[in-house]
Amino acid sequence: MENKFSIIVCTFNRLDYLKKCINALLALDFPEYKILIVNDGSTNETKNFLDALNEKRITVIHNETNKGLSRSRNIGIANSTSEFLAFTDDDCQVDKNWLAELSKSFDKQKVDFVIGQTFYISASYKGYFPERLVSNIDARWPMGCNIAYRKKVFEICGGFDDFFYKYNNEDSEMAIRATSKNFSFARCKTAIVNHQAMNWNAKALLRSTRNAAVWPLLKKKYPEYFQVFGSPVLLGTIINPKDYLFLLILPVVVPVLFIRYLAHGKRDVKIFFIKWPVYLILRRYYIYKEAISNKIFMF
User: Fold this and answer.
1) What residue spans of 64-169 are helical by DSSP H?
2) Among 53, 128, 138, 170, whose CB has the most other CB atoms within 10 angstroms?
3) Which domains, from first to last, does the chain contain?
4) Rg, the chain, Cα only
């Protein structure tokens, strides 16, 4: 009998994170499930480690070259025949009841996809920049590290769109596209994933300045649905309005933030100034650029 759930995890050169991720997945309190790991052309010891696994629940697919997260997820989707496809990331650890809680939401609410709640390290942990505080409190947003779909959604809507990867929002676009096709969703706060500890580096932080620039594209493509999960867009027009306040008071707050930064034992001055003010300025630039190029009134 085919397993009701398949869990899809994509990985690229993050073996230490992946090992913890797999251990958590194997400890799930759920009767039958498969784990499908897509190794996206890793150049370290990931392939050897995965090939040496002796676990019947795990299936491994090796991409010969790095294809990117969206394409790798789509490869996982294409190679699964389960009714439900759950997604998490290689730098995450699922709670032992994660799959059971997702399954309950599907059964009770009869929806087409379910969004889970994500914490950084744990529900009680309080981190500080430059920690990469990835979280999704109250399961508000459709993050790819903690979400599950009926496979029929992909059969009708298609897979993750690689175009949106440069905005780190291919998972958001997928869920918005599904709602635009009248697929229903539920939020499940008890389906918990904990993101493993991770710090920003300069390259990743600068890349993330493009994230908010996705909003003009989403508004243009899905004018009636782009805010279906909520959004940081005021009046459907002003993206991340708090940025403007921060930019106005930046000369006053930067010294305070810098003192706090040092007080928490942080010594990387370069990453601090990339965040304040380079990150804010670049974020506004990319928002304006996308709004103008797409002829959408947003700022």
Assistant:
1) 69-78, 98-109, 151-157
2) 170
3) 5-199 (3.90.550.10), 201-299 (no CATH)
4) 20
Q: What is the pLDDT of residues 71-89, one digit of tens each?
A: 999 999 999 999 999 999 9
| pLDDT at res. 2 | 64
The secondary structure of 116-141 as a DSSP string is EEEEESSTT----TTB----BGGG-S
- How far apart (Å, rounded) are the C-alpha atoms in residues 61 and 56? 14
> Is the per-residue pLDDT at 266 higher than 80?
no
Q: Do 131 and 198 meet the contact criterion of CB atoms below 8 Å apart?
A: yes
Question: From CA 38, how far away is CA 10, in angstroms rounded?
Answer: 5
Whether 26 shows a pLDDT value over 60: the answer reads: yes
Whether 200 and 254 have beta carbons less than 8 Å apart is answered as no
CA angle 234, 250, 246 (to 5 degrees): 10
Instruction: Give the pair of three-digit tokens for residue 19.
Output: 């090992």
Question: Model-level pTM?
Answer: 0.96
- How far is the C-alpha of 69 from the C-alpha of 286, rounded, in Å? 22
Strand 92-94 relative to strand 58-62: parallel, antiparallel, unpaired? Answer: unpaired
CB count within 10 Å of CB 69 equals 21
Whose CA is closest to 213, among 106, 95, 152, 293? 293
Q: Pick from 158, 160, 157, 135: which is nearest to 146 by CA?
A: 135
